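Dear colleagues,

As part of the handover before I leave the project, I'm documenting each prediction I ran so the next person doesn't have to rerun anything. This entry is a single chain, and its sequence is reproduced below.
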Amino acid sequence: MGWFGRKKTSHSAELEESLSASPDTVDESDEANAPDDAEVDDSALDDDANETEGDSDETPDPAAIPAGGGRRRAATVERGTKPTEPEGPWDEREKPSDVEYIDLGSLLVPAIDGLEVNIEVDQNTNQPTAVNLIKDGSGLQVQAFAAPRTDGVWDEIRGELTKAIKDQGGVALPMQGRFGWELQAGIPVRLDDGRVGQRPVRFVGVDGPRWFVRGVISGKAASAGTTDSSMDDLFAKVVVVRGPLAMAPRDLLELKLPQESQDSQDKSAAAAQSKEPDLGPLERGPEITQIG
């Protein structure tokens, strides 16, 4: 397995910032059509929990956002093949017994050799908000949220993401993928030479029992025409731990630092403290008596 890292971000950060820990693969073909300072607002999951689809003044085109969200667990050997047997992301009650996991609280991610695990931490609250998994030039950001007991939220969120990306000059196409409907997007980014290109990104989502998990795939695994299914395989092994607490829909499920990382921090703090000089209690020193 790789190493653990921490990256501080704002909980309401732009999508581009949230993807900055992932490998870059930039397509320059649409740079002329992208705005100069294009950023995509990733607020679709931070809306008021009581907001309904009809509350918005602007509704995405229904024809462009196919219906049919919900729990989808159909395994494939590679991208584009037909389902064979059930697979994850899993609920904690369905956790596979033959996989070693890293415990991150509401998310359990598989412990894989060479996998880098970065935890995004809100710079204002110092609370973990997302998990970034990086391996072999591809990245997967994973977040889990509370959801209604009966209805899923992926259809609605997918429509909101589509509109947000297009409003900022990007491209978002709904496609049938391994986990059902997903978004294949091009996010406008500023290149080193000042031009604007597009970063290919795939948004995947699964509605589970009282939870919703979203994955953002970037790097080689999101490139057009790729057969790289490594991040799909990784997402399919994720386990969501919803917990018994009542939560509003779209509330972020609590993450925690992996125990290995936490133990390392505790040891570092203890070591730093042990290096401080122990002055002990004040003792009376030798006295000099002045004569005459």
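The CA atoms of residues 1 and 113 lie 4 Å apart. The first helix runs from residue 15 to 18.

All the best with the project,
I.
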